[in-house]
Every structure is written in C-alpha cells, then in structure tokens.
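Quick question: what would this complex look like in 3D?
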Amino acid sequence: MSPFLSFFNKIDPQVETKPKVALSEVDHEMRLPVLLFTISGILWLLIGTFFAIVASFKMHSPELLANFEPLTFGRVRSAHLNAMTYGWANNAVFAVGLWIMARLCKAHIRYASMLIIAGVFWNIGVTIGIIGILTGGLTSVEWLEMPPQVGPLLAFSYVLIGMWGILMFRFRERGHVYVSQWYILGALFWFPWLYVVAITMIFLEPARGTIQALTNWWFGHNVLGLWYTPMGLAAIYYLLPKVLGRPIYSYYLSLLGFWSLALFYNWAGVHHLIGGPIPVWLISAGIVASVMMVIPVVVTAINHHMSAVGNARAVWQSPTLRFIVFGAMSYTLASFFGSWMALRSVNVVTHFTQFTIGHAHHGVYAFFTMTMFGGIYFMMPRILEREWPSAMLIKVHFWCAAIGIGMMLVALHVGGWIQGMDLNNPDIPFFSPDSSARTILGALKPWLFSRSISGILLTIAHIAFFVNFALMLIGPRAVRYKEGPTLLAAERKGA
Amino acid sequence: MKNLPLLFFGIFFVLAFSWTGLILSSVIQYGDLKPIAMEEGGVPQPQARVGVAQQGKLVYISQGCIYCHSQQVRRKGFGADWERGWGNRQSVPRDYILQERVLLGTSRTGPDLMTIGERQPSADWHHQHLYNPQFTSPGSIMPPFRYLYRTQKIGDAPSPNALKIPDTFPEEKPEPGYEIVPTERAEQLVAYMLSLKLNYELPESRNAE
Amino acid sequence: MFEWNLYLMIIAVFGGIFFATAVAALWWSAKHGQLRNFEQGSRVIFDDEEPEGVHTDYFPGESAKASDKLREIR
C-alpha cells in the first residue's frame, strides 16, 4: 500500500482489546454538551419563531410596528432566517448529529470540553450576529446576513466542533462505519469549507460581479444540501431502524444514495439564478444536477419506505418516529418539487415568488426540523434518564407542527404560483387604486394571511415543545423513573 | 466499508468538483471582465457608482430592500420583464462588475429596480413613496420608512425639501408650523434609486435577442 | 466562439479525471473487500442495551400498553 493510502488507513484504529462501551455510557458522557446545544437550540427556535411571526404579519399588514427600525421587514425576516439557521438548526445538528456520531463510534467521549467551549462561543457569535442584523449590520447576502465580523468567531467554534467529530471518529471502536457516520463526516467536512469560501469570496475579498451571486447560491443551497440534509438523513438512517428494532432495508441503496447526493446536490444551487446575468452553461449544469437529484431521493425514499412499511402502528406509537417519518416523507416530496422547480418552464413562474419561500420551508422545516424534533425526543430521555413529562404536549407539538407546516406549504405554494402567473402577465399590475381590479398583491394577500395563521399554529407547537422540555429539565424528581426512560422500560420488560 | 481513503477522498472530491466547476471556472471565464466602450473614444461602461448614491446603496443594504426587490432584467420572452418596462435589454455579467456587493435578489414581491432611476426620475416621488408607500402606490404592501424622515419646526421659510403630504392623507400631515424632511439616509437612498439605470449598451447586451 | 470551446475542453478533461477517479475508487474498494459482508454493516446500530427486534420508543407512560399491543399484532 502506498504511503499516501496508509496515512488515511491510520485513521482506522488498529486491533486493540478494549472493554466494550455501552450506549448508556456514551449517553452519560455526552450529557453536558448535548444539553448545552439542545437548550440553546430550543431557545433560538422560540426567538426565531417570534421574528417569523412579526415578519409574516408585516407582509400583509405593513403598518404593524412600522416605525421601529430594527423590526423593519428586511431585517426581521433576516433575523428570523439566521436565528433559525445558525441558532436553532445548527445547535440541533450539533446536539443530535454529534450524539449519533458518538453512539456509533462506541467509544468513551474525549475532550467534551472542546464542545462546551465551541457551543458557548457559537451561541455568543450568533447572538452578536442577530443583534447586528437588527441594528443595521445586515449584509443583504442571503443566508449570510450576519455582519461578517462574527464570521471568524463562528468559524473558530465550528472548527472545534468539526475537529471533535473527526477525533471521535478516529478513536471509535474498530469495526464497520455505519451510513449515518458517512453523512455526518461528510457534513462536518463540507460545512466549514462552504462557510469559509463564501465569507471570503463575498465579504473579505469580494469576487467580481455576479460571481458573488454564484458563490452565494453555491453556499446557500449547499447549507441545505450538504449540511442539513446529510445531518437529517443521518438521523433518519439511525433512528428509523433503531426504534423499529430492525436494520435498514438495503444497505447498498444507502451507499448509492449517499454518493449520488454528494455528487449532484452541490451543483444544484445555480437554479436560484435561472434567467439571471450569469453564463448559460452554468445554469444548465445547475438544472441538470437538480434533476439528477431525483436519483438519491428515490433511492433514499425506497429505503426508508421499505424499512418502515408494515410497521405503521409502531411508527404511530413512537413520538420519535412520528416526527422522523413525517420528515422523511417531506424530504422526498420537497426534493421532487425542487427538481421540478429547476426546469426552466416551471422556474419562469416560481422564481421570485413566495413559491420559493414555501419550498425553503418544505426543506428546512417539514424535513429537517421535524427530523430534529424526532431526534431530540429520542435522545433526551437517554441523556437525562428521565421520561418526557407529558404525552399530551408531545401530541400537541406534533399535530400543531404537522398541520401548521402543511397549511403554510399549501398557502405559499398556491399563493406563489398565482403570484408567478400574475407576474408573467404584464396586464396585471402590482397594485391599483381601484380596489376591485385584479392585482398581484391583492391576489397574494389572502395567502400571506393564511401563512400567518399557520405561523400561529407553529408557535403553539414550539411552545408546547419548550414547556415539555423545560418540565423535563427542572421538573420534580418524581418524573424520573415513573416508568423508566423509554428505552429502559422496553429492556426491563424484555419486550 | 472498513477502510476510509475512499470515503475521505470522495467527500473532498465532490465539493472540490462543484467549487471548481461553478466558481473557479467562472472566475477564469469572466473574472477579469472590464468596462468597455462601444465605439473608439467613447466612455467605457459600466461606470462605478460614487458619492451619495454609493452611500445610498449601503442604506439599501442595511434596510434589506433586496428581500422584495431584485436588480436584474431577464431576456425578452423569459418572464414579463420587458413587457413591464423594467428594461429594454437584458442585464449581463458585465453590468455588475464594478459593484463590491451584488444585489441580484431572488424575490419580486415588489417590482424589479434595475432601471428604477429611468422609470421614476422624480426624487419627490421617491421620498413620498418611502415615507408612506400608500401615498403613491395604494394597495402596496411595502413597509413605510418613516424613520428615515424627521419632523422639525419650520424656520424662517419652509425647507425646499420638505415632504409634500397628499391631502388625501390628513392623518399623516405634521402639526401646523412643522414640516417633515428627509434625513441624510433618506437623501442617500433616493440618490441611489435615481442612479439605478441601464441606459448604455455593451457588446454582449443584445446577444440574446 | 473559440474561448467557449476551450472552457468546454477543460471541463471535459476535469470531468474525465473525476470519472476515472470514481471508477478507480470503486475498483479499489471491490478488490480490497470493502464491499464484502456489506449488508451486515447495517446491524452495527444495535447492541445489548438496545437489541435488534425491540422497539425502543413510545409515548411516555404508554410503553407497557403499547408494547403489548404491538405483540398482539405479531
């Protein structure tokens, strides 16, 4: 073997006889970092929800809070996006993704303090960033709205987290690498690269002209495609078979799914620039890649479906799987929509409209966030050795989230489609003094309003989640071992 | 899979591949575009935006206007950009080369602004529209930017740049003896709006026709 | 335009290298037994505490009831 290859082989632990590390030991050792990330994630979720509601209501009632500059629409929607992305979603990824990684490595946790430091600095960075957005440091670069000055802080925290993940992997128990680990490892490599390149080419050493826009969407789309999606899929690939107690349907398919996703997804971002002032061949490449995304999606969908099929009741009786299966189904649907939207004939309608906003929520909320909810429902009892205090609140959370996001998707997709058709018809003006005239905004407003209603449902869901989580954390000790944490109950009864 | 070179190389390669293909290749292909004059001795276009208009762009950025207004004209026949009068030629990469922050935008909740300086050359209109969009555009859902204006006591004579509030909005009128004037930021933003023009040709600007 | 063809060639070369690497990687992995016992790998997520064949998640307070129900169906 060449020295080049053996360098990488070293990362695979050599034969050592170590005592086996039990999953509960891993859980116990991960308690502090996981708690830190989960708590901050959930707090960001609430903050982001608040910004979302303000932004959503402002869209149909522009006079709302209009004279308070920090909450002007452009800033508050950016604060919403960044609080959700870098606050909620990333903290959730750090908690759930790293925990799954640790469990699959089956090794004692080392350097947990790295994670604590990283977590503290990450959240400080995001807080400064959000305040920066609201007070005028908004950059107007989509997905990178935080003032570039926080970039180094976030990058530093991130590097610690990424390094920890790779160290964890390095010291894992010898044996097979599970598919979730590929996804997590990939994501841990990809995200910092994307982030650093984007920050550099847009802010520090701005690229010329519309190359910035290309970089922007290469980053923006890949945050979803090469960071949240792999992490979400890693969680699904781990938790679905785990909860059902039977292995994933086809391991070959999961390999194919991983590589085709990795190959196609990162070319797809250009479809945000269809019709724009960039070379046409790039756009065509982006469209081709977007359509090719059908392969990993179908493969993954078949795999998930075949794993869960015949277990509907088990899915329904597990809070985790309710959310996870909802997420997995949304992933399939959202991805098909994404491929379809990349076609020029469709894109000419949906581009520039609320349809895109709907699609973003389809991916980030209906797929990713729901999956992370499921992950947290599975993870917390094991981390805290406590039950969730209230089954009722979990159900409220699930139903409000599911109905809320469903309603939002319908509102934004239908409203966005109408908006797009109207935009392409030059006879329809944006607005008109004649209130009975057909106008773009007049036709769009009812849909924006129903989006706000769906936002209220989501708010209820998030509050239910938060209350349940807070009770679990600080509730009386009686909650502990009432019936035992979910996993122990099953084990003790030998079910 | 037990050994990992394949995994690591693969992970590295796929992103390197797309970065090379999408970004590096663009830098090579058009990263050194320069302003160009259509005829010998003409003014090379596009020109850099300077002064108050450039400061106005920073206001535009910090207010997040981009989230509802794009700055790009698509080719004729792709969407209704031409028919709506947003431009009579498509915008091309060279149009953007001198901008240190490119604001193409991905949302058109409001109209495209690539040529707003040509379509709406009146500063008064822009000030009225910014102060309360309903003055000029009834039915608009654009937020009002009143905080970019201030109310002051009228001095010896009314300020020349005092806002003309339409009589149909009596509740927006300042108290007698007071007037509403733009702050510096509002003046800058309007200067930026007026500077947004696509009134020159480039060698490639008619390629798609 | 000549330039365009040049860029297409460069891309084709890069694409060719990429494709060749992928094929080589696949060949290497097959030769070195990376794909042997492949499906077995999907079982590494189970251990003594959370063994295969056992459901591990229920609504709080409902695990006994729920697992009974699931057993009836089997």
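Answer marked as accepted. Chain A has two domains: 22-175, 242-486.
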